[in-house]
Design goal:
Number of helices: 9
Largest sheet: 6 strands, mixed
CATH topology of the largest domain: Rossmann fold
Bound molecules: adenosine-5'-triphosphate, magnesium ion
Shape: elongated
CATH class of the largest domain: Alpha Beta
CATH superfamily of the largest domain: P-loop containing nucleotide triphosphate hydrolases
Length: 368
């Protein structure tokens, strides 16, 4: 177990800047999730922590000790990859035992450890099988088992579940959470899937274009995303944005010929800034559909139902504004609206996020 710190870490590959000035301090046993679009530098960051890739700039510390120039094997890090990287010609026992054998651990100790780890992961009766004789989920467990054969100081998992189907993903997700809690090993976990990120991370690191955008707890990122990118990335379907311009005590929506009076909390944060061009954000779960416009103090926009998509426990309605912009609306329960129906979208001021559009910066998130 170790606390891990990255200090102004950068990685350049020839003319590509993969990671730029990345700084993060973690505490011992923390579960950190890295998210962001393809190519944003997640794997490069993980490989630098593992020592598989040299940093171009900056330092990496484990428990306050500089490990920047240490070889991977001297860092005591275990890594799980998306493609499992199991040895196809070895059975499960040998796959699990491989690393310990290399390190010349006594045979009896290896056997005891394999037994313990394979039981913990529910693969104790599969030790004689080769990887190709296993299901995807079972292979994934073997890959995890290999990583925990020795209790490393740091766990690195790079999209370990992306080869699995939805149901299995969910099952493995909760197993990894339980396992990590039980072992208490500091973990970095990469995923594309923001639902996975929200459900697993003690803290989430959102990256874009090699740069760290924001670090926070799942609820922290949901309630106070620092810019519109993070706001749009965390939450599914993503937040809706409306462009506007500040005037007096309100905001005029640029494309809609509508004006909203701003609630006190929004107005106060607007006045503390010099922002003029604004972005109002509202999440799909906070927009209400109605046949009638709302009473005072609540924002209403008229729209036309574009599509209705049942998602099981909720329904996603895409509503088209007169400007042609589509807004996502999540509705619980049954609805009678159909494509082409006229509706009103009702939004409460306490659900509005306010961004400075020019600086792309949050002015005011949800009240805490
Ligand atoms: N060995 C390399 N040589 C040159 N460029 C590289 C190398 N490895 C990564 N890159 C580049 O660095 C950037 C970051 O890559 P990285 O693999 O870290 O992204 P990622 O966030 O893990 O993406 P994905 O979600 O697709 O796995 C990309 O532009 C990539 O093309
Ligand atoms: Mg990657």
């Amino acid at each position: 177990m170790a606390s891990v710190e990255l200090r102004h870490v950068s990685k350049r590959f020839a003319d590509v800047s993969a990671v730029e000035d990345f700084s993060l301090e973690t505490s011992e046993g923390e579960f950190i999730v890295l998210v962001g679009p393809s190519g944003c530098g997640k794997t490069s960051t993980m490989r630098m922590i593992a020592g598989l890739e040299a940093v171009s700039d900056g330092q990496i510390l484990f428990d306050g000790e500089d490990v920047t120039d240490r070889l991977p094997r001297d860092r005591d890090v275990a890594m799980v990859f998306q493609n499992y990287a199991l040895f196809p010609h070895l059975n499960v026992f040998s796959n699990l035992a491989f690393g310990s054998q290399l390190r010349k651990v006594p045979r009896a100790d290896i056997e005891a450890r394999v037994k313990h780890v394979s039981r913990m992961l529910g693969i104790g009766d599969l030790l004689e099988r080769r990887p190709r004789e296993l299901s995807g989920g079972q292979r994934q467990r073997v890959a995890l088992g290999r990583a925990i054969m020795r209790e490393p100081r740091v766990f690195l998992m790079d999209e370990p579940l992306s080869n699995l189907d939805a149901a299995l993903r969910m099952e493995m997700r909760s197993e990894i959470i339980k396992l990590q809690e039980r072992l208490g090993i500091t973990t970095f976990y990469v995923t594309h899937d923001q639902i996975e990120a929200l459900s697993m991370g003690d803290r989430i690191v959102v990256m874009l274009g090699g740069k760290l955008q924001q670090v926070g707890t799942p609820m922290g990122l949901y309630e106070q995303p620092l810019n519109s990118y993070v706001a749009g990335f965390i939450g599914s379907p993503p937040m809706n944005f409306l462009e506007g311009v500040a005037n007096d005590s309100g905001v005029t929506l640029t494309t809609l010929n509508a004006r909203f009076e701003l609630a006190d909390r929004l107005l106060a944060s607007l006045r503390q800034s010099s922002a003029r061009d604004l972005l109002l954000g509202i999440r799909p779960e906070h927009v209400l559909l109605s046949d009638r416009p709302a009473s005072d103090g609540v924002y209403t926009l008229s729209a036309t139902v574009d599509t209705v998509e049942p998602l099981g426990h909720t329904i996603l309605v895409r509503a088209r504004l007169p400007s042609q912009q589509l807004l996502n609306v999540l509705v619980g329960g049954k609805i009678s609206w159909r494509e082409g129906d006229k509706v009103h979208l009702i939004m409460r001021p306490e659900h509005i996020y306010l961004f400075d559009r020019t600086a792309d910066r949050l002015l005011c998130g949800l009240p805490g």
